[in-house]
């Protein structure tokens, strides 16, 4: 019974854990989970000894589960093991209180079954068995440790000194760094000045695949990173009354949060050797976003290697600035969503990043640039939205599509279509006509291709390039009242 409950709780909370506290009492174990995306910030589970098993949840400001069982210790270890076994992130806090050597032995057996070491930023131990603590340290990657007892780490220090000497060899360091993610590398930098210098010589690749940034509050910047080794790592920059914090680590003194974030961001990208698959930037706070972009170093210009760029809730000027930071040689797709204010594309065609990208998507808003002024036919695939479209605009798009050797597909969504009643005068009788859409096939001169034009009434047009050999001969209109 308790094994099923453990699995259910673990599946629900495992990927949201940011910290853990475990306290052993005589007839009770208190497990506190610090959770992301939970209003109260944490969930407390009380495992209590009782011959009458029961399990109930108490909601409210501080969520709590009361789990009563005669074998309450087994209930705890089953759940704790399920939480830790496949946990791939890192813990900001791991705190243990009142642990005996037998408790450490249980934990050691759990940690030995993991495929990698458990990453911990702040490790805190209170009232514990010293030998028990030493028995688990080899299974943890700890950045900071706090203890209420003096611990003799003589053997560990001697081993650590030998390890430092080994790590100061660039050839060995290069092999070591191959299996570390960027967070582990940052921890390794803090071992010693010589180790840090050796890392700088090797220049390890953090192997980042995706980065998501949100600039919605000038006092809080969240960054989510996905790498080859970590499915998701969340880093939070937050202003406090006397300074700032990064996740749960506090720093004193005045600060410009955007500059602190940008300094770390530059360090993270410094040695990235392959393009990041996706960079997702979300705004909404226009003033703060302008400050962040204003603080960006000139070192960023044309240097950020990204394949897919997604930008949300930004102004046209902010999107223009961000594009300048991207290395045009690697950029493949540009997605712009839910822009704020009127959005004009007039100057974008001047950018190499715009010219070199292959795919453009604009959704959630209408661009203000007139259709016949759009310079977008360098893209192979496009999905855009405009407020108004006319028959003259359709003829213009048709002509540009026929001229271009690059464009494969263009979808243009619209809010209003003027003089739509004349569409057959310009395009001829459609090959297929249904109540809600019409389809035309149009030959492309001196080409084995043809244009497939799909009009969904009152919603959008789709222009697509097809092989003419696949199209029935009677699909092409013979005579139009209007000729281009």
TrEMBL record:
Pfam families: FTH (PF01827). Residues 301-425 form the DUF38 domain. This is DUF38 domain-containing protein.
